[in-house]
Amino acid sequence: MIIAERKPFREIQDMVAPYGNVLIAGCGTCVAVCLAGGEKEVGLLAAQLKLARNLAGQTGRLGEITVERQCDREFIEPLREVATDYEAVISTACGAGVQFLAALLQDKPVFPALNTTFIGVNEAAGHYTERCRSCHQCYLGITGGICPVTMCTKGLLNGPCGGPIGGKCEVDPARDCAWCQIYERLESQGRLQQIEAILPLHPHSRTTSPGTVIHPAYLRRYAAHE
Amino acid sequence: MSKLEDALSAGGFPLVVEVKPPKGVEVAKMLAPVTGLNGQVTAFGVPDNEHAKMRLSALAAARLVKEAGGEPLMLLTCRDRNRLALESDLLGAAALGVENILVLSGDYVHQGDHPDAKPVYDADSVQLLMVARELMAGRDSAGHALSGAPRFFLGAVVIPEAQPLGPQRLKFRKKLEAGADFFVTAPIFDLEKYRAFRKEAVPEGVKILACLKVPSADEVEKAARGELRKVYSLPPAVIQELSGGDPEEVLAKGAAVAGRLARKLREEKLADGIYLKAKGRPDLAAAFLKAAGF
Ligand code: SF4
Ligand code: SF4
Which residues in chain A have their CB less than 8 angstroms from residue B164's CB? Predict the structure, then answer.
């Protein structure tokens, strides 16, 4: 899932300082799971903002609403109506959700409450770690299910740099060197020969942003629109 | 053919001495070893933003070494350039008469003085070797023809004391396959560990420049406290020999130890030449040469 962190409160407060009625729009999917932007966090932010704005002598209403997913048009469509009562919107979705909402509410300022950090996993309660940089050319089949692009700090494709010490990464001694892990896993599975061949330069043209994916079943539909 | 290539292929046991490009534009100090030691040194290693600390460009420094009468061995890291910049710098090097190239991944930006810089690593060191080979064959990495192909003598790095050794050996094999002509090791202080690596992991005929380093007093103290976090180690006897005395004395003793190691490496045919890191100081390099008996 997508992992994000709440921005410092002060930054959020300053962004919406010029506006009276402000709607805080949450997202019930990834950012709810990582405790950054779901219904509960929307409530917390609203309470915090209310208190601060009262202290600053600022008037205006703070609204709260959380939708299932802000990255899906059908879920945000109702917000068009809700937002009419507000001068500005704070979105606690990931960067994708914030942009989708901003595109929907063309004439209204939409502010992000989160810093979107990475695609990762839930290691344990409140502990998230990165796993994928969405590189458009997944190497996991070759590298034993450990991502060289993400888990190796340098994103090296052909083995370790000169830096690992005792199997730990040169950049962060608390972390395992991804290439030592890849080697170990493939060795234990008897698949080391998979990484003997030299991997060529990564096709970065594919990662040119913004990316688009069209599911094969829909190719004809979208091709017809071109 | 470069003097380095010539010496390595003829079994001449070349010595490469590292110079230190300045953080700034005062280049006289950097060039002091070139003017001072040229007769006894085959080539001068020119680091590329070493330890991710920003310094005068290795390409410019390599050319300056050449103009001062020395032969450069230019280091080229994957950290700071995408494939376009790597390739155009390689062509630039060739056009400026820089033939010896040592490719490296490059220390990560966090370790240097621009921790917020964007790390590149568009190519890794294996891929960079292949790219350089392509250029030599008259094509760039996208397959376009060049007007005039460069000629390089290509080196790569190997870590004899890597732990674990398996992944490092994999990378070593790939570098050989990608066309490395020679290798430079991580600093060697422990002859026994290096001997074991050489015996077990280095195929016949592979040319190795053993890196010897004159450590600072600070580094020796760290090693003595067991806090040296490096891909090489200082054995207790070396630590004991180097410990004590003011920083200058430690450096002088370090040059002597390095010289002694160089002599053994040569006598026992454990290396094909030396890459010396002596803080870019001609006096330390001269002390090394004296102790080595070269
Ligand atoms: S190789 Fe890594 S970054 Fe690329 S898609 Fe696979 S997991 Fe993601
Ligand atoms: S130590 Fe390992 S994980 Fe860290 S940058 Fe080097 S190869 Fe990548």
Answer: 167, 180, 183-184
